[in-house]
Design brief:
13 helices; globular; 9 strands; Inosine-uridine Nucleoside N-ribohydrolase, Chain A; nine-stranded mixed sheet; 40% helix; binds calcium ion; alpha/beta; binds beta-D-ribofuranose; single chain
């Protein structure tokens, strides 16, 4: 089973992504970052999800509360004041781990070089801090997959996708670190829309439906970025089956100075070797078949 470390800011679609990972991946750790909502809330949500999804003693380690160099940007208008919209989970009983997410990322990758896929589905602050503190994480990670960026459009503003916009300097450090960033941007995530048919397939899955249905519905109602997309689940799905996505090598530079374009991922497909594999097309039918199949399996385990 593929082993993954998930850096996240739950976040409605982060929750749906964690549920997908819980079904079919071995999660070796969850790290949290301030993003959609404050770090205290993203961590509380990750802890509640760990228990709701029966993830046992998978460590949950908080990291950066805000961007490396910028004022904080949040998205409660998308994810609600708690970060989980209308989803109400029992508060976690067990606490977060001690230490910082960046150190957890370093230590975990160092302990199993070449074996663990890092999936980052929030602002890239923790991953950048890990790279700055220990550049060898780039060699130790089996692969880095992110949900973030776009080569066509933004969602937080016309130019920038939220995760990159929230910490462009961190994103720039991560793209320039020397690994191939597998970028699942808005170009593909906005094609994975929760249609009424998909929503129907999320019903009847026991207590898992208590998470899936209100999460997907809330995101559907509130999202102003072109539809009820569950962006972060695409990054996890890619770890499960990279053939779901067509991806193209590219050079991605993060705009950090533009008056109107900060956080834009400037993507150059003219190169044969770049710093990224950029997803261009998602096989939407196969994506939903995989996601719903995984949720059904998880539902049988959870009861
Ligand atoms: C990304 O931003 C967040 O609001 C979502 O959780 C996702 O990671 C989409 O732009
Ligand atoms: Ca997220």
């Amino acid at each position: 089973m593929t082993r993954v470390l998930i850096d996240c800011d739950p976040g409605i679609d982060d929750a749906l992504a964690l549920a997908l990972a819980a079904s079919r991946l071995e999660i070796v750790g969850i790290t949290t970052v301030g993003g959609n909502v404050d770090l205290s809330l993203t961590t509380a949500n990750a802890l509640a999800l760990r228990e709701f999804l029966d993830l046992g003693d998978v460590p949950v380690t908080p990291g950066a509360a805000g961007a490396l160099m910028r004022k904080t940007v949040r998205a409660p208008h998308v994810h609600g004041d708690t970060g989980l919209g209308d989803v109400v989970l029992p508060p976690a009983v067990r606490p977060a781990s001690q230490g910082h997410a960046a150190d957890f990322i370093i230590e975990t990758l160092a302990a199993s070089p070449g074996e663990i896929t890092l999936i980052a589905i929030g602002p890239l602050t923790n991953v950048a801090l890990a790279v700055l503190r220990e550049p060898r994480v780039v060699e130790w990670a089996k692969q880095l997959i992110i949900m973030g960026g776009s080569f066509t459009r933004g969602n937080h503003n016309p130019a920038a996708e939220f995760n990159i916009l929230a910490d462009p300097e961190a994103a720039s450090i991560v793209f320039d670190a020397g690994w191939q960033v597998h970028m699942m941007g808005l170009d593909v995530t906005l094609t994975a829309l929760v249609t009424s048919e998909v929503l129907d397939r999320m019903r009847g899955l026991g207590r898992l439906s208590d998470l899936l249905v209100p999460a997907a519905q809330y995101y559907g109602v509130i999202s102003a970025d072109g539809g009820p997309a569950i962006h972060d689940a695409v990054a996890v799905a890619y770890a499960l089956d990279p053939t779901l996505v067509t991806s193209v090598p590219a050079r991605v530079d993060v705009e950090t100075k533009g008056a109107y374009t900060s956080g834009m991922t400037v993507t150059d497909f003219r190169v044969s070797q770049g710093n990224a594999q950029v997803a261009t097309v998602l096989d939407v039918k196969r994506f939903w078949d995989l996601v719903i199949g995984a949720y059904e399996e998880l539902a049988r385990r959870l009861g």
